[in-house]
Prior knowledge:
Blueprint: H1 2-15, H2 19-22, E1 28-31, H3 41-59, H4 67-93, E2 101-104
Antiparallel strand pairs: 1-2
Amino acid sequence: MSKILILAALAAASLAQPVLAQNAAPRTATVAHTDLDLSTAKGVKALDRRIWRAVVAVCGTAPDYDLEGKNDVRACRRDTRLHASAEAEQVIADAARGQPIRITTRAR
C-alpha cells in the first residue's frame, strides 16, 4: 500500500511543473490604463499594481519544493517587470497616448 502512495506522490510531483517549463513561448497580458489619471501619484500607483498583477500572471508560479522553478519564476518576474516598467514610464510621460501596455515574458 505504501509503495502505491509513493508512486502516486512521484507521479503528482512530475506533473506539477512550473508554468514556465510547460510553455517555452512568451505569454502576454494587456494592462489597460486609459481609465487612470497618470498625472497623479494615485494613478501611477494603480498602474504599477496592475503591471505587477500582469507580471505574476504571465510568469506563473512554481511549487515550494522546486527551487530551480522558483528561481526561474523570480527571474521571469524581475526581467518582465523591468521591461514593463520601461514601457510604463513612456506611457506616463505621454499620458495622452491611450495605448494599452503589453506584458510579455522574455524568451530565453
